[in-house]
Write a structure and sequence with these properties.
Blueprint lengths: L1 E9 L5 H17 L5 E9 L11 E8 L2 H10 L6 H9 L1 E14 L8 E5 L7 H14 L2 E6 L9 E5 L11 E11 L4
Antiparallel strand pairs: 1-3, 1-4, 2-3, 2-8, 4-6, 5-7, 5-8, 6-7
Length: 189
């Protein structure tokens, strides 16, 4: 499973509530007209995104798709048909953005709510084998998911763990702990 992650923020003269309302409307429209291979979207709000040199509210739209072929279909559907006008509306009010592609390493991508995001890189000089051995116990302890950035797309740390509850991270891995507010989750229940 892959996640296309779109980080964005609104122009200063638009109220956050208005931007969020239209953002949620867009994602609900996309969910009602989802292309093949598209699972769902999770929209998170953070108070900062240091990897984007931002200390203000930033939104992360996590679009979960089955595979890379589904990205083409998502890219087309997200801006056309019933999604065209809702996308145009939110795009009018978006001041800046960045994107990235992540692959699910472990965990439940259908977790009903995410409240914490832990961003980190593999330490320099550590092999991926050792790195994954350190993380393996977390896959049993943490109710969440581990995502790894693909093909070095986008700025930011290489890995992200999203959870509903806080946890103690291994001391051998420096990380950013970022409280998030989930404002939209379009999964079918």
């Amino acid at each position: 499973m892959l996640a296309y992650v779109f980080c964005h923020w609104h122009v200063p003269d638009i109220e956050a509530a208005t931007y969020q309302h239209d953002l949620i409307a867009y994602h609900r429209t996309l969910a009602m007209h989802k292309p093949s291979g598209f699972h769902h979207t999770r929209v998170l709000q953070t108070e900062q995104a240091s990897w984007l040199q931002r200390n203000e509210v930033t939104y992360e739209d996590w679009h979960l798709v089955e595979n890379s072929a589904a990205l083409d279909l998502l890219n087309e559907r997200a801006v056309s048909g019933p999604c065209q006008e809702p996308h145009r509306q939110i795009a009018r009010w978006t001041q800046g953005s960045a994107g990235g592609l992540y692959q699910l390493v472990w965990g439940n991508p259908d977790l009903s709510i995410v409240r914490f995001a832990y961003r980190f890189d593999k330490p320099v000089g550590m092999t991926y084998g050792t790195f994954y051995e350190i993380l393996q116990p977390l896959s049993q302890e943490v109710k969440g998911m581990l995502w790894g950035r693909q093909m070095n797309l986008g700025p930011g740390p290489e890995f992200c763990i999203q959870t509903s509850e806080p946890f103690i991270f291994p001391e051998t891995l420096p990380m950013l702990s970022i409280p998030v507010k989930q404002i939209c989750f379009t999964i079918d229940r």
